[in-house]
Amino acid sequence: MNLEESLEMIERALTDLIERNKKIPVLVEGERDATALKKLGLDGEIIIIQCGKRISTLCDFIAENYREIIILTDWDRKGWQLYRKIERNLKGRTRCIHDYRLIFARYSMVKDVQSMPNFIKGLRKKMGRKS
């Protein structure tokens, strides 16, 4: 897979994510992840996991308030474990969308959400595109 293809897949996913975030909240691990997504153009609701609540309490809140949620935990080991825990907890209560995690994990050369803005900017620069 070449860099051009990677950038295209990431940008397509990002455009879709920005659009879907207008109606569906995105769940991230921390404040820096939320800041990174805002830099990338998301302006919908972003829920931060590390908000002092237990995962089960947070999942109960999500299940009571949302029919769908986009889970965008990091794609490192801890992020995958957290994702699985949340998805198990929400099963049958709230639809979990995880496509974006999979696309970013596959096509980016970083392991977390907070690194995405600089990664995309660097990739665009390499491809001779404006960022």
Summarize it.
This protein has helices spanning 3-20, 31-39, 55-65, 77-90, 99-107, 116-126; strands at 26-28, 46-48, 68-71, 95-97.
CATH architecture: 3-Layer(aba) Sandwich
**Spans with pLDDT under 50 lasting ≥5 residues?**
none
What separation lies between the terminal Cα atoms?
Answer: 22 Å
Compute the number of strand runs.
4
Q: Look at the structure and give the mean pLDDT.
A: 94
Question: How much helix is in the residues?
Answer: 40-55%
Please state roughly what percent of the residues sit in beta strands, choosing from under 5%, 5-15%, 15-25%, 25-35%, 35-45% or over 45%. Answer: 5-15%
How would you sum up this structure, described in words?
With 131 residues, the protein is of the alpha/beta class. The protein has one domain (3-120): Dna Topoisomerase Vi A Subunit, Chain: A, domain 2, CATH 3.40.1360. It is built from six helices and four strands, in the order H-E-H-E-H-E-H-E-H-H. It has helices at residues 3-20, 31-39, 55-65, 77-90, 99-107, 116-126; strands spanning 26-28, 46-48, 68-71, 95-97. The protein has a four-stranded parallel sheet. Strand 3, helix 4 and strand 4 (95-97) form a beta-alpha-beta unit. Helix 1 runs antiparallel to helix 5 and helix 3 (55-65) packs across helix 4 (77-90). The chain is elongated and about 45 Å long. The model has no long low-confidence stretch (mean pLDDT 94).
Descriptive terms for the model:
about 130 residues; alpha/beta; Dna Topoisomerase Vi A Subunit, Chain: A, domain 2; four-stranded parallel beta sheet; 6 helices; about 10% strand; elongated
